[in-house]
Amino acid sequence: MIPNPKFAEMPKPFWANVKSLSQAIGYSGKGVIKRPDVDTLCKAFLKLDLNVENLQEGEEPTKLALDLVAYFEYRADVLENYVEPRLMNSEEAKAEFSNLRNSLSPHCPLPMNKQKGEKKAHAYLTCIVNMLVEKTCNGVDCDFDPRQLATITLDGRPIRTLSRRVDGAFPSTINPIALWEIKEYYYTTTFGSRVADGVYESLLDGLEIEEIREHVEVDILHYLMIDAHYTWWECGKSYLCRIVDMLHMGYVDEVFFGREVIERLPEVVDLWIERHNAIGDEEPINL
């Protein structure tokens, strides 16, 4: 899922409003994602002791209010009609993994999850991502299991280093073209703090990448890949809303929801290959 151009260029104060209003109103209720109208937004502003005139002048809603209503409507619609149908359960993910492994005969890492007993199995989404990246890269180097922090260099000297290790880097963690995080929780029975932390980890990465883009003028592509229908849809709708917000704020370039990695990832990897070929032997710092 890529950002909707209508909302991708909204200034940071717009997103401050989105987060404050979501806090006051709530992201979802009774199993559905909320779609607040102007009156609900105004009541939330009063609750937060904020100036309602930013949303309503006399009887007329301001442009900000109309933009906010449109965004909340869009966020609910895209999650309900695009994201939810693409989220897989463990059996669906296992079937997709098995089909790809049988057809591709991969050489890339196919890691196991961290579960024990009957729940111990391959990390299905990670394996699917690895297999598709390997196939599309067609021999170009890729780090499927980074064991070090991503670093931007100039003349062999580090000028920026990210704070966290990521789940994948192309072609490597030194001057990467693309970085990605994978959050799959097929056997999680509740939406706990560990799952929530995964969202904020990606936000931290995005903030650091934004700083690199603005001050070092290096454009690192940043992706988030998530799956598990029960965890994200049944338990974590509010965090799906936060992920859609994060995407439109520019902190990730694209989010892959469940089987969307199969639908879309090969096309995205082709973009990485194009950038890699254009750079040649030059460092990405010269982009």
Relevant terms:
287 residues; alpha/beta; 2 domains; two-stranded antiparallel ribbon; 10 helices; globular; disordered C terminus
Distance between the termini: 25 Å
**Estimated structural class:** alpha/beta
Strand and helix order: HHEEHEEHHHEEEEHEHHEH
* Mean pLDDT over the residues: 94
How many helices? The count is: 10
- Please indicate the count of domains: 2
Note poorly predicted spans: 283-287
- In terms of DSSP E residues, the strand content is 5-15%
What coarse outline follows from CA principal-axis ratios? globular
| Total count of strands | 10
Assign a percent range to the helix content.
40-55%
What this model shows, in words?
The chain has 287 residues and is α/β, with parallel strands linked by helices. It folds into 2 domains: 8-86, no CATH class; 90-286, no CATH class. It has helices spanning 5-8, 12-25, 38-47, 63-83, 90-104, 124-137, 193-215, 229-235, 237-248, 260-279, and strands at residues 28-29, 32-33, 56-57, 60-61, 151-154, 157-161, 168-170, 178-184, 221-227, 254-257. A 4-stranded mixed β-sheet has the order 7-8-9-10, with helices on both faces. It has a two-stranded antiparallel ribbon with strand order 1-2. A two-stranded antiparallel sheet has the order 3-4. Helix 7 links the parallel strand 8 (178-184) and strand 9 (221-227). The longest helix has 23 residues, at 193-215. It is globular and about 65 Å long. Residues 283-287 have low confidence and may be disordered.
